[in-house]
Amino acid sequence: MILPEQTKIIYIWGYPLDFSLSPFFQEHCAILSGRRILYKIFRGEKDEFLHLLKSGRCIGANVTIPHKIEAAGLCGELTEKAQKAGSVNTIFKAEGKITGDNTDGEGLLKWLKIKGADLEKCAVLGNGGSARSIAAALSEEKCEITIFGRTEKGWEKNFGSFRNLSEWKDDFLTISTLPFAVEGKNVITIGYSSGKASIDSQMMLAFQGWLGAKRWFGETLPAEEFAKIVKLHAKAQSNQQLILNFAAKNEI
């Protein structure tokens, strides 16, 4: 029997996190693979986060906006993907060392290949931490990449070319990392909010979460099972949001 004080902990560091699906699907998948974990939200400062990472009960963490770049500096080692991305979204322990990885690009790429997307040419909207990870992954597929943003940051030339955001046209596959909706027949949006998660954002989340679980545990459920469970929890969150909206309108 696993006692509560023996239960291993995985944290997610970011803000805001009120709508995050990760605690639900990661605990669900852990249970199905015969493990008991606590997946806890953390909204504090980096020094406290590092203290939590060093705890014997902590086996790793996820990092989301706005801390992905900052998190890289907390790690003793970085994987090649994290180095290329210049940011960290997954932290695990390897031989006692706090190690930073980035599964954003790899997770999205797995989904794009499953859906049969044309990866010959691609636009990435935004040039923050997630965009850099995605561009790095796409570059490994020999994709011709154009990164669109308001101000060039310098890293873009490592993976493609930079253009001002105002110049973007919906002519080919576009990955939007922007915090607002972008409409277009070729646009894949990876962000989501409470009750509003597109199938593309769900699947990127599922596959990057699956890659994270492999880092923490070595073995976990098949990726397809992660996908099914993320879709289940996304549907549940959507239904909950519908009920809350209905209750607010009808003053229940």
How are the elements arranged and paired?
Layout (H helix, E strand, L loop, with lengths): L7 E6 L8 H11 L4 E6 L3 H8 L4 E6 L4 H5 L4 E2 L1 H6 L4 E5 L2 E5 L2 H11 L6 E5 L3 H11 L4 E6 L11 E4 L9 E3 L10 E3 L9 H19 L5 H28 L2
Parallel strand pairs: 1-2, 1-3, 4-6, 7-8, 7-10, 8-9, 10-11
Antiparallel strand pairs: 3-5, 5-6
Helix pairs in contact: 1-8, 5-6, 5-7, 7-8
Compact overview of the structure:
With 252 residues, the chain is α/β, with parallel strands linked by helices.
What would your notes on this structure say?
The protein is an alpha/beta fold. It folds into two domains: 4-102 and 199-246, 3-Layer(aba) Sandwich (Rossmann fold), CATH 3.40.50.10860; 106-189, 3-Layer(aba) Sandwich (Rossmann fold). It is built from eight helices and eleven strands. It has a six-stranded mixed β-sheet with strand order 2-1-3-5-6-4, with helices on both faces. Helix 1 (22-32) crosses helix 8 (223-250), helix 5 crosses helix 6 and helix 7 (199-217) packs across helix 8 (223-250). 41% of the residues are buried.
CATH class of the largest domain: Alpha Beta
Q: Shape, please?
A: globular
Largest sheet: 6 strands, mixed
Q: Helical element count? A: 8
The CATH superfamily of the largest domain appears as: Leucine Dehydrogenase, chain A, domain 1
Which ranges are low-confidence, i.e. pLDDT below 50, for 5 or more consecutive residues? none
Q: From the helix content, strand content and strand pairing, which structural class follows?
A: alpha/beta
**Overall tally of domains:** 2
CATH structural fold name of the largest domain: Rossmann fold
- State the order of secondary-structure elements, H for helix, E for strand: EHEHEHEHEEHEHEEEEHH
**Strand percentage:** 15-25%
Q: How many β-strands, per DSSP?
A: 11
Amount of helix: 25-40%
CATH architect. name of the largest domain: 3-Layer(aba) Sandwich
Mean pLDDT: 90
Strand order of the largest sheet: 2-1-3-5-6-4
Gyration radius over CA: 18 Å
The first-to-last residue Cα distance is: 43 Å
